[in-house]
Design brief:
The complex is a heterodimer.
Chain A lengths: L4 E3 L2 E4 L5 E6 L6 E7 L6 E7 L2 E4 L8 E4 L6 E5 L8 E8 L10 E2 L3 E5 L1
Parallel strand pairs in A: 2-11
Antiparallel strand pairs in A: 1-3, 3-8, 4-5, 4-9, 5-6, 7-8, 9-10, 9-11
Chain B lengths: L3 E2 L4 E5 L4 E7 L6 E7 L6 E7 L4 E4 L2 E6 L4 E6 L8 E8 L8 E3 L3 E6 L1
Parallel strand pairs in B: 2-11
Antiparallel strand pairs in B: 1-3, 3-8, 4-5, 4-9, 6-7, 7-8, 9-10, 9-11
The chains are: A mainly beta, B mainly beta.
Chain lengths: 116, 114
């Protein structure tokens, strides 16, 4: 079974430019998450999808960040325009929901964004 | 306001001995706790979890203990092996229903000395 797939693995852009990250979750996982991990910190939740619906986007900086999961499968996270402080690793994760008190949260390898 | 705290940024343990990683939380509504292991340039990998209705869960060399009254959990690795050297994250799920997003600690860098 393929895991959570993210692309690209690395991205370097100049500030004020747009950038997009793509995620394909594990097949059958209805819940998809985007996290941001700053250097020396743990991942922080940006947005959570149940199928195609964003059910928790309270931590997403909506002035410059947007996300979509149009068909309830893969998802795209976009930043426009990027700022220097957006440099971080962006992680995608998925879950099938609760199965016998186990949630199966699985993470992708992440996209390391550097804004210069 | 950090709801999940890992107060030891790093821990060095001799190979073959026990590694104990600690985690404290402040939100009594968390109902499920997980430990993840992370190697450089890779995403976090699930290690072990525990429901708030239990106080211990064991999987091979890994055991997680939960003390709800103290809002404290710990991960025990015994015996420690060189491949265990990694950053370990403690994470917690809220009781909002369904697969809520996780709240993570800052991580503890475990170094296994030969």
């Amino acid at each position: 079974e393929a895991g959570v797939v993210q692309s690209p693995r690395y991205k370097i852009i100049e500030k004020k430019q747009p950038v997009a990250f793509w995620c394909n979750p594990i097949s059958g996982h209805n819940t998809l998450y985007w996290y941001r991990q700053n250097l020396g910190q743990g991942p922080e939740l940006l947005i959570r999808y149940e199928n195609e619906e964003a059910v928790d986007d309270s931590q997403l900086p909506k002035d410059r960040f947007s996300a979509e999961r149009l068909k309830g499968v893969d998802s795209t996270l976009k930043i426009q325009p990027a700022e220097l402080g957006d440099s971080a690793v962006y992680l995608c994760a998925s879950s099938p929901g609760e199965i016998g008190n186990y949630y199966g949260y699985t993470f992708g390898s992440g996209t390391r964004l550097t804004v210069v | 306001d950090q709801q999940v705290k890992q107060n030891s940024p790093s821990l060095s343990v001799q190979e073959g001995r026990i590694s104990i990683l600690n985690c404290d939380y402040t939100n009594s509504m968390f109902d499920y706790f997980l430990w993840y292991k992370k190697y450089p340039a890779e995403g976090p990998t699930f290690l072990i979890s525990i429901s708030s209705i239990k106080d211990k869960n064991e999987d091979g060399r890994f055991t997680v203990f939960l003390n709800k009254s103290a809002k404290h959990l710990s991960l025990h690795i015994v015996p420690s092996q060189p491949g265990d050297s990694a950053v370990y994250f403690c994470a917690a799920k809220g009781a909002g229903g369904g697969a809520d997003g996780l709240t993570f600690g800052k991580g503890t860098h475990l170094i296994i000395q030969p």
